[in-house]
Amino acid sequence: xxxxxxxxxxxxxxxxxxxxxxxxxxxxQIAFLAVLALVVxxxxxxxxxxAPGQLSFAFLDxxxxxxxxxxxxxxxxxxxDAILVGFINTIRVSTVGIALALxxxxxxxxxxxxxNWLVRKTAAVYVETLRNIPILLWxxxxxxxxxxxxxxxxxxxxxxxVIVLSNRGLNVPWVVGGANATGFLLVLATxxxxxxxxxxxxxxxxxxxxxxxxxxxxxxxxxxxxxTVGYFALRSPFALTIPERDGRGVQGGIRLGAEYSxxxxxxxxxTASHIAEIVRGSIQAVPKGxxxxxxxxxxxxxxxxxxxxxxxxxxxxxxxxxxxxxxxTKNSSLATAIGYFELTRLTQQAIANGSPAxxxxxxxxxxxxxxxxxxxxxANIVNRGLALEGR
Length: 391
Hints:
Layout: H1 21-50, H2 79-111, H3 117-130, H4 135-147, E1 157-159, E2 163-166, E3 169-172, E4 174-177, H5 181-209, H6 215-233, E5 238-241, E6 244-246, E7 249-251, E8 254-257, H7 258-285, H8 288-296, H9 301-331, H10 343-352, H11 357-386
Antiparallel strand pairs: 1-2, 2-3, 3-8, 4-5, 6-7
Helix pairs in contact: 2-7, 2-9, 2-10, 3-7, 4-7, 5-6, 7-9, 8-9, 9-11, 10-11
């Protein structure tokens, strides 16, 4: 009995449009966009009918009528300048907070896996205590119960003769630029480029000969040598100033206001508790055979962690770490509760002074969106750099 041949792909009839998967996918996306556009148009029409003229951004040119502490900002300057100051203040606390939270989080995360019982339990208490209390409570506690309860400036605490603590905030050492500061920055940029090139050369030598590259040691040494020579050649373009109490003031160093100090400490210790758990989980996700192989070739505990475990763990940890960096940046908006002049605080101040709320909050959301996208882009670049080739 002859068996009929199966029809070729070209001879097969296509399913009707209402059953074609490709048509249904495209149609579903178009329908979603149409519904979204209708919702936006409805909200826009509702706003223009009930509050005409509320979507104008002309308010940005009006006087801010607000004094911003620790700045030279004048109340007669436009609101756009005030929002820019708030944007910079948000960046100040976010960048420093991310760096410190990452450092503390890594240390605590590794400590949670320590073989020392006391170290392991101390790290566990830190994590479980900090991360289970709302960040707003930490901000209020550090501001109202810690910073503001420090002695007055006339009775300030001078810790190690380099830090001055008072209810005005913290005064810490700082670097002040001189006449040749710009030239020295160019020297540092050149030193960094040369150090990177040295690292590349050492890596290629390792690939060709198998000899240890020590690229970090060589690169750091090259950078320090060039920076030191440039520093003395330009006759000390930067100088370190130490804060010293002078009556009712402090001379030298840089002052971290009470609001900034409380916010920074709260964001750092709270976010670090979450980062510690990410680091701990990422280390435990590294296959056990990797640790056994490191032990088999007689690597020390530090070498095993530095060369085998952490490089693989960070491939796992980068995406959730990026989420914590985003959370820290957005949590800085809670500083409005203690009066720190960041983006949210200054936007609310502008609205309180008569600026229309819808466009003001649109500007605020656009500012936070730009910060979040910047952090996401950097995290994606780092993630691609750590990814295994071919994946």
